[in-house]
Amino acid sequence: MSKWLRRGQASTSNNFVSSAGQQSHPSDFPQPPRNEMPPSASSAVYHHQSPPPQQSPIGGYGAPPPSTMPMDVDGQPPRSSKYGQTSPYHSQQSGPPTHYDPMGRGVVMDDHHNRSRLSGSSRDRRSRPQQQHTEYGRHGAMHAPDPFGVSPFKGPVLGSSTPPDSIQPSSPPPAVTADSPQPSSEVVPRRPAYLLHRDLVIGKGSYGQVCIASRGEPEGHSSGRSGKRKKFACKCVMLRNDPKYIAKLQEEVNVLRELRGHDNVIRLYDVFCVDNELFIITELGRGGDLFHLLTTHPKHGVTESYAAKTVSEMLSAVAFLHSRNICHRDLKLENWVLESGKDVWSPLKLIDFGLSTHFTAGQRLSRVVGSSYYVAPEVLKKSYTEACDLWSLGVIVYMLLSGAPPFYGKNDEAIKASIVQGEYTFPHELFRDVSDEAMAFVSTLLSYNIEYRYTADQALTHPWLALNCDPEALHKCKNGARGIGIVAEPRLDPMQL
Ligand SMILES: Nc1ncnc2c1ncn2[C@@H]1O[C@H](COP(=O)(O)OP(=O)(O)OP(=O)(O)O)[C@@H](O)[C@H]1O
């Protein structure tokens, strides 16, 4: 199925949008099945000069998927997935709907191996002779300023002799226990200690790598606590003496903080620097990213009900972002992770705000950023608004339903040319089982003219979602889109490093 998909790597360069980088299955890239496709008069070709279609016809073969692509068109070293070969997306638990395979295959697989890799179980760790853990914040802790003021803990020094079981930014400081050092006057909350598992890499991006961090009582600790360490994702970024780069990181953290509380946005827990390296501690998406989900299944895409559930959660997050005047600018399959490694229906979480920016109403942005396949045509033309995020969501839904991208080419230039041309089809081979309503929904997002493109709020009211989503879940997404129940935090002062 998604043999012609490859991981996209975001670029911040002004006039280049990169798709180079990780390629999960290099040997799988097929030659385009052009010859296998019968010519069809019913091909649905949408062009930006045409009025937006209300309902998309099914069937027809358009241009083929891309041909075999080079491992790395930028000459950068290929990135490799650290999730392992076993899919983390299957559950061995029984009972609907969590057991349901969205690919419609009804297959369940053992995800133990993968979970142990993600969670760094004791068995996994024992088998490694050389552990590469760095513990921050124990006795003699490194001084780790909190450059963004994110941590709820006031102390300038990371760590405590008795770190609490979990960090709850809005909760009171951890209790001081008998073996804690006695504070001299008042109780000053200490920042928690994290164990950084450098060898448990869960993802690599253009700015660094993401690995597991944990916090809590080590197993067998005598304090009588549960002995379970809480796991986090830790993005490790080497700092450079470059004001623009620092400003970008600051914006990333500010955005993460502002969005804290939304069910479909990854939760920020802590930020600190040690020895010129920045660590951003967030909630861990144990189920891995959607790119992995899609590319580890041999079928063409997911079921409509799974796609609709997924998209409504995405729209909820994006509507919330836009209501806070934040444009993500890098929405792609790789940037949505599943909360649970056991339940493929668990909530999705949006990650990677490295290209996000604040905007003012009506402002035209001009910086060309994003990832191949997903970038909107108006971004490539250097005049765009937050509507570019909806285009990217349209690409994602198309991919979820079919397993292939709507715009493709043998390299970045060809992909960009295809996007700027704006023509795409719903090849019968890939959309055979997909309803007209689903394709109509995709068309509302892949509308070339942003006047016709749906906003996230509009898309949430589309009949296809109402038909395919659990009403209660959809209602929750609509509430989330409006920020109901979320206390947004103010923007932070500029970072001082
Ligand atoms: N909180 C998380 N939970 C689970 N996996 C994560 C988490 N954060 C990141 N990842 C994994 O790590 C990968 C890279 O992370 P991220 O996108 O934040 O890095 P980046 O350097 O900004 O990447 P890019 O080059 O795509 O912008 C993600 O695609 C995802 O697979």
TrEMBL record:
> Bias category Polar residues: which stretches?
9-26, 78-96
Q: Which residues form the Protein kinase domain?
A: 196-465
Q: Which GO terms describe its molecular function?
A: ATP binding; protein serine/threonine kinase activity
InterPro entries, per database record: CDPK_Ser/Thr_kinases, Kinase-like_dom_sf, Prot_kinase_dom, Protein_kinase_ATP_BS
The region called Disordered is annotated at: 1-189
Keyword presence, Transferase? yes
Pfam families, sorted: Pkinase (PF00069)
Keywords, A to Z, come to:
ATP-binding, Kinase, Nucleotide-binding, Serine/threonine-protein kinase, Transferase
Tell me the superkingdom of the source: Eukaryota
What SUPFAM superfamilies does the annotation carry? Protein kinase-like (PK-like)
Residues binding ATP are 235
Amino acid composition bias (Low complexity), ranges on this chain:
160-169
Q: Which PANTHER family match?
A: SERINE/THREONINE-PROTEIN KINASE
Question: What is this protein's record name?
Answer: Protein kinase domain-containing protein
What species is given as this protein's source?
Fistulifera solaris (Oleaginous diatom)
